[in-house]
TrEMBL record:
Gene Ontology MF term list: DNA-binding transcription factor activity; transcription cis-regulatory region binding
Entry annotated with the keyword Repressor: yes
SMART domains, sorted: HTH_LACI
Name of the protein this chain belongs to: LacI family transcriptional regulator
Residues making up the signal peptide according to the UniProt record: none
Keyword Transcription (UniProt): yes
Classification lineage: Bacteria, Bacillati, Bacillota, Bacilli, Bacillales
InterPro entries to which the protein is assigned, alphabetical: HTH_LacI (IPR000843), LacI/GalR-like_sensor (IPR046335), Lambda_DNA-bd_dom_sf (IPR010982), Peripla_BP_I (IPR028082)
Length: 335
């Protein structure tokens, strides 16, 4: 396997000159640079990234930690993250936490071990605060995406969950519904709390009592507890509409309703946060508060790169970017 000395010998330059070409540092004549690049190609020489990173104190690597990459929302966030990272000569390592703080901590320890330059994270929940303190202790910058973490001061890119929830529930109320239930993620997650707040505000502003028993908590993941739908259907009076706090929950709610022989929207209206791509493009069905997921990824990555490349002087104060959802009316709400 060729090394830097072999490249220098073939190109007729010093190893230092080869190093400057590889690291884009110092002044090298264009003719010399091309000669070095030809020698590298002829010898199939691949620079040692680890050695380079030790010298530069940079690995040009970012980590993206999300709860579940199979969720179309986070798939699109990841696409935005990678596109922006590549435009700025960074690579991205993708990690799934499964909303498990212990698994999330394993990945954060890995980030420290492989010396990533920064982390974008959709935190598992409020328990992530201790995990993020590990990044702070190693001075690894990070940006929160989609979810805030209580007590953590950092750049954050979120959607307006309260407003999106308020608008969805108001739409149901405008259609004549007054018995509206909600299935949300665990309230240790900021988006679950904010969407519950928006749901409650819409009810109360329209003179409809908030029923704690009609708000059910479960995982945002695919493995929703079907008994929650059963519990709501056994209530007296029975809800006429269900607000699901994310796309996976909406799909599981519809499955649970079908199991009981109920039709959407004829027997039960359903609305939710985020589309269920790619099916939403083929046969639009769910009424949703659609968030610009790609922009979540691009903006979070740009904020992180700005932190990484910040020069001397005090770091800027944490920035908060709030993106507005768009309510799209489709069949599942009845109109």
């Amino acid at each position: 396997m060729a090394n830097i000395s072999d490249v220098a010998r073939l190109a007729g330059v010093s190893p230092m000159t080869v190093s400057r070409v590889i690291n884009h540092s110092g002044h090298v004549k264009e003719e010399t640079r091309l000669r070095v690049l030809r020698a590298m190609k002829e010898l199939n020489y691949v620079p040692n990234d680890l050695a380079r990173s030790l010298v530069r104190r940079r690995t040009d690597t970012l980590a993206l930690i999300v709860p579940d990459i199979t969720n179309p929302f986070f798939t699109t966030v990841a696409r935005g993250t990678e596109d922006t990272a590549r435009k700025n000569d960074f690579r991205v390592v993708l990690c799934n936490s499964d909303e498990d703080p212990a698994k999330e901590l394993e990945y954060i320890r890995m980030c420290v071990s492989i010396r990533v330059d920064g982390v974008i994270i959709a935190a598992a929940g409020d328990g992530s605060r201790k995990n993020l303190e590990l990044l702070d202790s190693f001075e690894i910058p990070y940006v929160l995406v989609d979810r805030k973490v209580d007590g953590v001061q950092a750049d954050v890119v979120t959607g307006d969950s309260r407003m999106g929830a308020f608008q969805l529930v108001k739409h149901l109320i405008d259609l004549g519904h007054r018995d509206i239930a909600m299935i949300t993620g665990f309230l240790t997650t900021s988006t679950a709390r904010e969407r519950r707040d928006g749901y409650r505000r819409a009810l109360e502003e329209h003179g409809i009592p908030f029923r704690e028993a009609w708000v059910k908590e479960t995982s945002y993941m695919r493995n929703m507890d079907f008994t929650l739908v059963e519990q709501l259907l056994d209530c007296t009076p029975r809800p006429t509409a269900i607000f699901a706090a994310n796309n996976f929950l909406a799909v599981q709610v519809i499955r649970g309703l079908r199991h009981r022989g109920l039709r959407v929207p004829e027997d039960m209206a359903v609305v939710c946060f985020d589309d269920v791509d790619p099916y939403s493009l083929v046969e639009p069905f769910l009424t949703v508060a659609s968030q610009p997921a790609y922009n979540f990824g691009t903006i979070a990555t740009q904020l992180l790169i700005e932190r990484i490349e910040h020069g001397e002087g005090p770091a800027p104060s944490p920035r908060s970017i709030v993106l507005q959802p768009e309510v799209i009316i489709r069949k599942s709400s009845g109109h």
